[in-house]
Amino acid sequence: MISHSAYAVEPWCLRETGLHLDVLAQSESVFALSNGHVGWRGNLDEGEPHGLPGCYLNGVHELHPLPYAEAGYGFPESGQTVINVTNGKLIRLLVDDEPFDVRYGRLRSHERVLDLRAGLLHRVCEWTSPAGRTVRVRSTRLVSFTHRAIAAIAYEVEPLDGQVNLVVQSELVADEQLPELTGDPRVAAALESPLQPEEHTAVGTRLRLVHCTASSDLRLAAAADHVVQGPEPTRTSSESSNDVGRLTVTTVLGPGETFRLEKLVSYGWSGVRSLPAVRDQVEAALAGARSTGWQGLVDQQREFLDDFWRHADVEVDGDAEIQQAVRFALFHVLQAGARAEQRPLPAKGLTGSGYDGHCFWDTETFVLPLLTYTSPEPVAEALRWRQGTLPAARARARQLGLKGATFPWRTIEGSECSGYWPAGTAAFHINADIAAAVVRYVSATGDEDFERETGVELLVETARLWHSLGHHDSHGRFHIDGVTGPDEYSALADDNVYTNLMARANLQAAADAAERHAGEAAALGVDQEETARWRDAAKAMTVAYNSALGIHEQSAGFTRHQVWDFAGTLPEEYPLMLHFPYVDLYRKQVIKQADLVLAMYLCGDAFEHDQKARNFAYYEPLTVRDSSLSACVQCVMAAEVGHLRLAYDYLGEAALMDLEDLERNTRDGLHIASLAGTWMGLVAGFGGMRDYADVLHFAPRLPERLNRLAFSMLVRGRCLHVDITNSRVTYALTEGEPLRISHDGETMTVSRNTPQTRPVKPPTALPEPAQPAGRRPGHLR
Ligand code: BGC
């Protein structure tokens, strides 16, 4: 993508300077706009050509049966898939009776710019129709951060060579035809015509369609209104049918005249509200947007983003590509979360239908950390969504014969819909990942109301799960057997170190929270005996260590397995899960994604520095990174153990995952966790930020390539600014009361008048470990 000649590297935007149909689907993902509630892929205004048309409403999905060749007890029976909802983006144009279609006539110029500060997608192109008429078309699109239900487009046409007759059709279209998706199992199962019509109207410039889904029983409405400006005579008419609402405008433009259409679109859905209620909801949202007006929406968008960037920007001197990539990443992660409001944050955000629109542990482990320190409100909302799904998680635990709650590995509405339990339900670590996100959010914000109302319940129910899932052996040691850790190439392992350490933290945090909030805990039936049992289990938790090798075992017995034949694996045989059977992968030493290495990052205080270096050296040659979640974690730990060059290569891989389409599936949607991993790599990798102790800790170190790295973080109502060069780091407070932090082990207080500057200690350079043959980071670029 970005290495494609059509893309430019710029600090505050993503610019495409020519239209290349070979990367059209990818461009639709990178130019997607969303606020976490409404998502519009960056499809062309006129709808065609397209890679994958997409409009999404967070939570709107359809159910489908999950067939099994051999069924088993507790297998989920129903799958959930995100659906393409009513398309409100469409604006078709006829120039002297020729449809504006870039595949015909001549596209003289084309440019799209995603402006990361303004939150707008601009397009300008000049097109000569097959009959020789030339027009300039400009459009600007937004999905509003301040009006949650609203998306809007300003669309302009001007003739460039004499008078033209124009017909503009602005539409709402339901059940669009979708292209056939690929055979990749990770790509959403296509659902044909999921929307059933309930009501349609067109009155003046206003359109509305209401539909419902057949099995998930959701009702959704889309409405649009328009402001039309053109020379006299400009005429409008509107019509609607089951799946189409259409405003048609006709006008004649002379030289120097411009036609302009402003289109406001509102969306709403509900699983419980009646048709009149949902209809009124979208009409009300539209009325609100009309009163704000196009310019008002644009101004509010800017204000919202100014505030975000003030607290979230990351400056990178020395690598323009990474500078662009990290801002692109921050913007898209914000888009995924900003207004999700008690709905899941899917692995692809609302940028595509990949992974069926499911939400995984990606949210709590990769996405929420970034938001916690830059825009914390969506974090509380995302965790409240998890709390809202506790009834399903409790029922799932009962079904599995467990206590507390078992959160789903993948879901949209809260129940498990992973049909492959070894890399689904067995990945119990998601429960501890949710607990860790609660602890991180509370400690970063000091939000006690949240802890009392939401945190305690999530911590208690997940602690109960761990206590019932594990067991004490005859020596009193606590084991958690038969689980799948982050490495999905080793399923059903015993004592996975990542899982055990995260469960240990979960059990301790639950006991602590129950003591702080005795009333809430008692209401959940927690007594002192129960918290004592959690503490005992935590204290006795097994952490598998192999003293002969001087390293931790990823899971008990892992290092005894045969090592995968990396030399005999062809480059085109990656990702391995699409070319080799799991029965083979599961019994070999081959790691899909950082597992023990992730444990060393998130639970770093459970390891000695030397152990970290040895573990890293051992696991690095076994890790193939068949998941986009790996590179950022390997970046962080490579930096910590002193391999700064390698860390930088990993950063590049995480940062450019979508801009370079490294996994060849950006067309299905962006890799939101890897985007968040760009921030993680810079802040936790080169900034050395760790948050597992009472005070935030930093151990900065820059790779050779960078001259400077600066970032801000929101911590308990303060804004901390960290500015790192090769020789020194300055910690300054731009907002709030004095803050205690630690730098390389020294605790200090930073206040608004007293920034603190310290020298940066370069790490001792160790020999770099090798990666599996052909899997060095950077090999994809
Ligand atoms: C990874 C999982 C991840 C999922 C969604 C899989 O390939 O192995 O860890 O949650 O993708 O991103």
From TrEMBL:
Keywords: Glycosidase, Hydrolase. GO terms for molecular function: hydrolase activity. Residues 743-781 are annotated as: Disordered. Residues 689-750 form the Glycoside hydrolase family 65 C-terminal domain. InterPro entries: 6-hairpin_glycosidase_sf, 6hp_glycosidase-like_sf, Gal_mutarotase_sf_dom, GH65_N, Glyco_hydro_65_C, Glyco_hydro_65_M, Glyco_hydro_65_N, Malt_Pase/Glycosyl_Hdrlase. Residues 327-680 form the Glycoside hydrolase family 65 central catalytic domain. Residues 760-770 have a biased composition (Pro residues). The keyword Hydrolase applies. PANTHER family: GLYCOSYL HYDROLASE-RELATED, GLYCOSYL TRANSFERASE. Belongs to the glycosyl hydrolase 65 family. This is Family 65 glycosyl hydrolase. It comes from Streptomyces humicola.
